[in-house]
Automatic annotation (TrEMBL):
Protein's UniProt keywords contain Nucleotidyltransferase: no
EC class of the enzyme, as a word: hydrolase
Catalysed reactions, semicolon-separated: (2R)-O-phospho-3-sulfolactate + H2O = (2R)-3-sulfolactate + phosphate
Protein name: Probable 2-phosphosulfolactate phosphatase
């Protein structure tokens, strides 16, 4: 039987064996929600990079460049970290280079050892679950967290995936059990459940209420971004 597990922070990734695992990277507020939205609105590909410097080099090569640090746009780049910025028709067919505080770093850490890396958000939750059901590998949901610390919104997404797949995968580790239990407590009203979470407070301080509400919507898009080489493309 295949296994499903949850890594609550990229700083804990070294504790997991990835050589037979699909890694589902999630950064609900807001990197993976941006990626899913971008593809849904016609972006051709996204290159996720860990550093601002790497992103700037790609911008200089002609890529549309998105850079975020501490939940705010880095000066000199084209896009911020709001999913609404990716709904621009001018981005249709474009190749985007992206760096974020947590999400793209998580992808970079998973890439060397995982069988596959895919991008998950509540926005494409059902598509991710369907995709995983048709794969022969173990699953690890990697929560991007916040600067090495676990966060609640990514853990809720991980729990939603585990809950959906618990009858088809062996749930062996406490992190997966914890995530599933937290999700089941929160699923009827995730916004209220998250109202006092650290990243909600951080984003509310920036006045980004609409981003929060948008990112908690389930199954808006039936797409799965998957990493091929250095680029995310649609599966």
């Amino acid at each position: 039987m295949k296994n499903i597990d949850v890594c609550l922070s990229p700083d804990l990734l070294h504790l997991h064996k990835l050589n037979n695992s699909i890694v589902v990277v999630t950064d609900i507020f807001r990197a993976t929600s941006c990626m899913v939205t971008g593809f849904a609105y016609g972006v051709s590909s996204i290159i996720p990079v860990a550093s601002v410097e790497e992103c700037k080099k790609l911008q200089d090569m002609g890529y549309v460049a998105a850079a975020e640090r501490d939940a705010q746009k880095v000066e000199g780049f084209d896009l911020d970290n709001s999913p609404f910025s990716y709904m621009d028709e001018r981005l249709v067919g474009s190749k985007i280079a992206m760096t974020t505080t947590n999400g793209t770093l998580s992808i970079s850490k998973a890439k060397p050892d995982a069988v596959k890396v895919v991008v998950g958000a509540f926005l494409n939750l059902g598509a991710i679950i369907s995709y995983l059901q048709n794969q022969p590998y173990d699953v690890l949901v990697l929560c991007a967290g916040w600067k090495g610390r676990p966060n609640l919104e990514d853990t809720l997404f991980a729990g939603a995936v585990v809950e959906a797949l618990k009858d088809e995968y062996f749930v062996s580790e406490d992190s997966a059990i914890m995530a599933m239990r937290v999700y089941n407590e929160a699923k009827s009203n995730m916004g209220a459940y998250l109202s006092n979470s650290s990243h909600i407070r951080r984003l509310q301080g920036l006045g980004i209420h609409k981003d929060i509400n948008y990112c908690l919507q389930k199954d808006l898009y039936d797409i799965v971004p998957v990493l091929r080489g250095n680029e995310l493309v649609l599966a």
